């Protein structure tokens, strides 16, 4: 029954074994071929199989006759040509390529697809490297297919400059029925073809049915954790004014999700955001990057982004003048927020974030805090103390410096100070210099009274003598009992070991953790500690999945200068202690040497990974020597292993190690020859 009714399937076999595909999954409509082994090699090519590629293609067609959604790794236009003729009824296609674009004519990668698949409605190129000049001519050559497109994802992370203004105009003019548009572009006015007001207005004019829009500067894609400038403002302003934003928002009445990460100053945006809230009543998710003046928090009347009352997800990045009182205003107006992300806002403190968390206790379950000057790891967790029994997903930066002068005792915060009879709140220091009269709504006041009387099921009153109370009528648990996903950023050279001691010691249901280590190892001396601190995660009993991303850790792949460590020793430092964890799935990005474009698994890392005896799945996002990979065969439970060079530019011919096509096949044969009890 499962085989006969399954509609989605990802193939993970070796391309040479395509003739052994079972034919019992005939109902599959969504097929993913992008992870076949050897990863990144041409599908259905003579080098990948010993059988005629056309016979294998027909085998795929017979095994999966009703495919309408396809993901495939396309090294060359011939792959697109084959799969588009196999399934001419394709409606959704995702192309993947991290290797460099082959020398071919403009649009050669897309022409076969648009020619054969007349029903195409969704195209995802977010992991496909191509030239921005490739797409517009193809859309113009096949107007019927272009007009049928409803979803277009062009957030290609490997772009350096992204789509130019004239290309965005051409794309939106050719695809008037678009409902989802995600584009990597350049807002920097110093570049030719930068995106400004005219390009923005062309989007709303040409595609009035848009429901999801992501316009992200390529600088943000390349440096997701980049810290803001000293004062929070960039040297250049974006050429996007308040009037243009108002016209842009007014032309998109169906908008549900909006991301504008421009990486250049957009000043005095509060009024435009008020128009966004009124003209786009369906808006549920919003992310703003480098927007200033989003909420002035002056007087008792809500303004700016606080008037987007329907928001359920809000992300604010590098807003230089956002203060604690602004956060409180946002919590007051956006009372449905379930997800909140704040990045690079230097004027907010634990007091403002803690008060916001208290006010959103009933809805907030997903929080991300990064690059905020006054919010290190301990301060971030302290701010969320009252809702830690409700948080399900969390990201913090592992910055262990002592709390600065802006720290405060959360137990001294009483929500009644912000709810009720127009109490004046003093705003000093980094929060500004004015007084603000908070004349809160009666609904919020009633909620506070219900909490004190124990009438609200989401918030219970306990007497101060109870260890979990604070004397203000609120009770909060000591455990992060609902937390199932944790994300951490760690600067290179820092340790993970303080994590339990700052407040994350009791996470009984934590299942997945993602750790990103970033920085330059060059010039650093040996760490004083033997290990990074993965062993401290053994206190989380349900932890089974980990993503350890050291891909942005830069060092010496070969010989390091005296007194420093090469990448093999840094890998030993990062991975020591992983054997104490009961992981079943691990994604690992090795550190890199950018000078030689090499990300490799070295001998110490291979040995340590082989000792993690509970692992079932291991994906290494880099390369390795074959004899290092053979260490992993000793792991009794390991079932699925793959090397993925999913970074740009992936090497055309792997010469830094001997892990090529034949090496991958020998390793997989050795892995699969072992007996498996289950």
Automatic annotation (TrEMBL):
UniProt protein name: COI1 F-box domain-containing protein
Record-linked InterPro entries: LRR_dom_sf
GO cellular component: nucleus; SCF ubiquitin ligase complex
Domain of life: Eukaryota
Biological process annotations from GO: SCF-dependent proteasomal ubiquitin-dependent protein catabolic process
Species of origin: Malus domestica
Record-linked SUPFAM superfamilies: RNI-like
């Amino acid at each position: 029954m499962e085989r006969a009714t399954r509609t989605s399937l990802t193939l993970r076999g070796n391309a040479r074994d395509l003739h052994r595909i079972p034919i019992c999954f005939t109902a599959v409509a969504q097929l993913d071929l992008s992870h076949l082994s050897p990863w990144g090699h041409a599908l259905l090519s003579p080098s990948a199989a010993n059988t005629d590629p056309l016979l294998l293609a027909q085998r795929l067609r017979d095994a999966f006759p009703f495919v309408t959604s396809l993901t495939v790794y396309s090294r060359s236009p011939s792959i697109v040509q084959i799969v588009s003729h196999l399934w001419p009824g394709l409606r959704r296609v995702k192309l993947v390529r991290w290797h460099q674009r082959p020398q071919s004519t403009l649009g050669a990668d897309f022409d076969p697809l648009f020619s054969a698949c007349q029903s195409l409605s969704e195209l995802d190129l977010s992991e496909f490297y191509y030239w921005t000049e490739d797409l517009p001519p193809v859309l113009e050559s096949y107007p019927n297919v272009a007009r049928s497109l409803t979803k277009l994802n062009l957030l290609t992370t490997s772009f350096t400059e992204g789509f130019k203004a004239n290309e965005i105009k051409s794309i939106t003019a050719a695809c008037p029925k678009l409902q989802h548009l995600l584009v990597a572009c350049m807002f920097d006015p110093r570049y030719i073809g930068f995106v400004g007001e005219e390009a923005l207005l062309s989007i709303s004019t040409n595609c009035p049915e848009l429901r999801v829009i992501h316009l992200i500067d390529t600088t943000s894609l390349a440096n997701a954790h980049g810290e803001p400038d000293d004062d929070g403002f960039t040297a250049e302003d974006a050429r996007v004014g308040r009037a243009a934003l108002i016209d842009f928002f007014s032309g998109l009445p169906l908008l549900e999700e909006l991301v504008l990460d421009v990486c250049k100053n957009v000043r005095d945006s509060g009024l435009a955001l008020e128009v966004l809230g009124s003209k786009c009543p369906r808006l549920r998710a919003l992310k703003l990057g480098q927007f200033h003046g989003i909420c002035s928090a002056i007087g008792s009347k809500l303004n700016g982004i606080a008037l987007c009352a329907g928001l359920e997800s809000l992300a604010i990045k590098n807003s230089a003048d956002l203060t604690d009182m602004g956060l409180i205003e946002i919590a007051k107006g956006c009372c449905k927020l379930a997800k909140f992300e704040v990045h690079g806002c230097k004027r907010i403190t634990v007091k403002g974030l803690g008060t916001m968390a208290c006010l959103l206790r009933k809805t907030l379950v997903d929080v991300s805090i990064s690059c905020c000057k006054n919010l290190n790891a301990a301060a971030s967790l302290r701010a969320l103390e009252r809702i830690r029994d409700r948080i399900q997903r969390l990201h913090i930066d592992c910055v262990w410096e002592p709390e600065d002068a802006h720290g405060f005792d959360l137990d001294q915060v009483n929500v009644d100070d912000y709810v009720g009879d127009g109490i004046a709140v003093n705003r000093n220091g980094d929060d500004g210099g004015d007084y603000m009269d908070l004349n809160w709504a009666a609904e919020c006041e009633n909620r506070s009274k219900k909490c004190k009387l124990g009438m609200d099921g989401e918030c219970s009153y306990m007497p101060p003598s109870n260890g979990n109370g604070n004397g203000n009528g609120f009770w909060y648990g000591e455990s992060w009992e609902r937390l199932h996903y944790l994300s951490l950023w760690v600067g290179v050279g820092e340790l993970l070991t303080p994590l339990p001691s700052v407040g994350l010691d009791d996470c009984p249901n934590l299942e997945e953790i993602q750790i990103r280590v970033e920085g330059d190892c060059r010039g650093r001396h040996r760490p004083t500690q033997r290990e990074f601190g993965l062993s401290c995660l053994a206190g989380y009993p349900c932890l089974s999945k980990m993503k350890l991303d050291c891909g942005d850790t830069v060092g010496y792949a070969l010989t390091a200068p005296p007194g420093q460590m090469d990448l093999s020793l840094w890998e030993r430092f990062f991975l020591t202690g992983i054997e104490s964890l009961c992981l079943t799935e691990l994604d690992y990005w090795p550190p890199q040497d950018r000078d030689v474009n090499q990300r490799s698994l070295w001998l110490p890392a291979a040995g340590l990974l082989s000792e993690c005896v509970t692992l079932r799945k291991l994906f290494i996002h880099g390369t390795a020597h074959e004899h290092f990979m053979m260490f992993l065969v000793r792991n009794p439970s390991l079932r699925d292993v793959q090397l993925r060079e999913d970074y740009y530019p992936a090497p055309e011919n792997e010469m830094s190690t001997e892990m090529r096509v034949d090496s991958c096949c020998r390793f997989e044969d050795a892995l699969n020859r072992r007996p498996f009890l289950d």
